[in-house]
Amino acid sequence: MTGYGKTGLVLTEPILHELSSKGNKGIDLPVSGTKDYTQDSQIPNSLLREDISDFPELSEPEIVRHFTRLSTYNYSLDGGFYPLGSCTMKYNPKLNEVVSQFEGFAQAHPLTEDEDSQGILRLLYELQEDLTEISGMDTVCLHPSAGSHGELLGMMLICAYHESRKDFNRKKVLIPDSAHGTNPSSAAICDLQTVTVKSGPDGQIDLTALNELMDEDIAGIMITNPNCCGLFESRFEQICEIVHQKGGLVYFDGANLNALVGMARPGDMGADVLHFNTHKTFSTPHGGGGPGAGPIALKKILEPFLPKPVLVKKNDFFHWDYNRSESIGRVRSFFGNTGVLIRAYCFIKTLGASGLREMTETAVLNANYIKNKLENHFDVPFKNQNCMHEVLLSDKTLNEKQVTTLNIAKALIDKGFHPPTIYFPLIVHGAMLIEPTESESRATLDHFIDTMIDLAEKPVEFFENLPQKSYVSKVDEVKAARTPVLRWEKIRS
Ligand SMILES: *Cc1c(COP(=O)(O)O)cnc(C)c1O
Asked: Which one-letter DSSP state was computed for residue 30?
C-alpha cells in the first residue's frame, strides 16, 4: 500500500511496518557494545540483541502523524453526540485528566509504606465515604477494575455469606430477562445457575413470576435499577422483601446509577450489595473496553468477607488492614484502578451534593425530552411511563416498510452521530436504547431529534449501502468471516 492520509473517504493509513524506511530514527540511543552504552545500561551485554529483524524505523514526526491521523478516523465523544444507551458516554471533564496525572498520584508506587502515602490514601478513603453516602450502604470496597468485576466480587461475597451460615443449598440466582449479559456471566463464574425472571407487560419485573421462582435454593437476585429498558423498577422494595423472606440477598447492578444519584439510594430501597461503574456515572473516557473502575458498596452483613486489604482510618492515620480472618482473599493486585478512582473523586468533589442531584435531574429530563419528541415517529414500547436517563425505541412501525434498526443506525453515522445501543435489551424487537446524558445541549438534542424524524420518514431504498461517509463503509461480513485476515504479513516483492 502506498500513500497515506484521508484519500477521499477511504481508510488508507498504512501500519508502522509499511511506513518504515531503513535508517530512519525517532530517538538516538548509544550504540550497543560501546563504552557509553555499557556504562548507562543495567542489562548485561550477553542479553542484548544485535538487531531486531523487521523492526519499524521511523522518525518522530512520522510516528506522531501516524497516530494523530489514526485518532481522527474513529468517532469520539470529544467530536460529537454519542447516545450509546447503558454505556453513559458523558463528557469527561479535562480537569479530571490533569489531576489524575499529578506526579504525586501518577508516580505513587503501590508498595510505598502507608506513612509515606497518606495523601493518596486520604483521597481513596474520602471516595469510599462519598460512595457509601451516595449509595446508602454501610461500606465500600474500591478494588474491582470494572463494573463486571464488581458484579463478580459482589456475587462472591453473597456466596461467602451463605457458606458462613452453612447454607450450602443455594446454587441458583434470579436474573430478569432484560439484564445485561455480564450478570449471568458473573453468576456462572461463581458456579451459580441462572434462573430467568420474566418482565411483565410494563417492562418491569413481574412479582407473580418472582414469587413462583423464589425458594430456599436461591442465593439471591441481580437487578438493574433503572432497568435496561430505562424504566425505574417501582416495585423494588417488594422484590427485596420477597427475596429476603426466603433468605436470599439482593445484588443491585448500579450501571444506571446516574439516574438516581442525589435522588434515591439503593441501600434505603433494600439492596445488600451493588457496584458502581465510576467510568459511567462519574465520567472517565471508557470507549474501546477500558479503563474502568467498579467499586462495590455493601451492607454490614457482607463486610467480614471483603477482599484484602481493607482501607481503614485510625486516629487520622490511613492504612491497609490485612488482618481479616473471614476475607475471601484478593481479587486483584494492589488496590484498584487508582487513576480512574481519582477521576471519580474529582467529578464528585467538583459537583458537590447539589451538583450531583442536578446532574441526575438533567440526564432524566434530556431522555424524556427525546422520548416526547420522538414518540409520534417511532414505536416506544413503554410509552405511558416516563423513562429515566435513557429512552427505548423499537423498529416495529418501521418494519411495515422493511426498514430496520440496523438501517437507522448506519444512516445516523452518515449524519455525524454515533448510533445508540441497538438490539439490546433483548426483550424488545429491534431495540434502540438512547442515552443522551446530562452533558448535551438543547441544540444538540434538537439536531439529533430532527435527524431521527427525517430518517423515520425515509423509504427503504434510502438506506441501501449506508454508511457512505465513514472511513470504513459497509463491510463485507461474509468475506470477513470466510477469509479472515488476522495477521500482518510482509509483502515480499
Ligand atoms: C456497562 C454495564 C455493565 C458492565 O460494566 P463494565 O464496567 O463494562 O464491566 C453491567 N451492567 C450494566 C447494566 C451495564 O450497562
From this structure: P
pLDDT tens by residue, 454-479: 999 999 999 998 998 888 777 788 99
Query: Rounded to whole angstroms, how far apart are CA atoms 171 and 194?
Result: 9
- Chain mean position to CA 225: 16
Query: Which one, of 393, 379, 389, lies nearest residue 435 by Cα?
Result: 389
* CA 88 to ligand 1: nearest atom: 15
Distance between CA atoms of 139 and 313, rounded to whole angstroms? 13
Kindly give, in sequence order, each residue whose CB lies less than 8 Å from that of residue 148, ignoring residues fewer than 6 positions away: 182, 185, 186, 294
**Residue percentage of the chain with pLDDT more than 70:** 94
Which CATH architecture is the domain 360-479 placed in? Alpha-Beta Complex (3.90)
Q: Whose CA is nearest to atom 7 of ligand 1?
A: 147
Max CA separation in the chain (angstroms)? 80
Write the CB contacts of 273 (distance below 8 Å, at least 6 apart in sequence): 137, 154, 157, 158, 249, 250, 251, 252, 296, 297, 298, 299, 302
What topology does CATH give the domain 95-350? Aspartate Aminotransferase; domain 2 (3.40.640)
Over residues 177-229, the pLDDT tens digits come to: 999 999 999 999 999 999 999 999 999 999 999 999 999 999 999 999 999 99
Predicted confidence (pLDDT) per residue in 5-21, tens digit: 444 555 678 889 889 99
Q: Give me the residue spans of the domains in the chain.
A: 2-73, 95-350, 360-479
Q: Chain centroid to CA 392: how far?
A: 19
- Whether the per-residue pLDDT at 53 is higher than 50: the answer is yes
- In this predicted model, what pLDDT tens digit does every residue of 256-288 receive, in sequence order? 999 999 999 999 999 999 999 999 999 999 977
Ligand 1 environment, Cβ below 6 A: 86, 146-148, 180, 182, 224, 228, 253, 255, 277, 292, 294
Q: How far apart are CA 91 and CA 256, in angstroms?
A: 16
Q: How far is Cα 392 from Cα 435, in angstroms, rounded to an integer? A: 9
Cα–ligand 1 centroid distance for 486 (angstroms): 28
- pTM exceeds 0.85: yes
CB-based burial, 236-246: b 16+ in 10 Å, e otherwise: beebbebbeee
Ligand 1 centroid vs 29 CA: distance in angstroms?
44
Burial tier of 177 (Cβ tally within 10 Å: 0-12, 13-18, 19+): middle
Helix/strand/coil for 348: helix
182 CA to centre of ligand 1 in angstroms: 7
* pLDDT of the residue at 485: 85
Give phi and psi for 85, each to the nearest 5: -55, 145
CA-nearest residue, atom 15 of ligand 1 = 86
Alpha-carbon gap, residue 448 to 441, rounded angstroms: 11
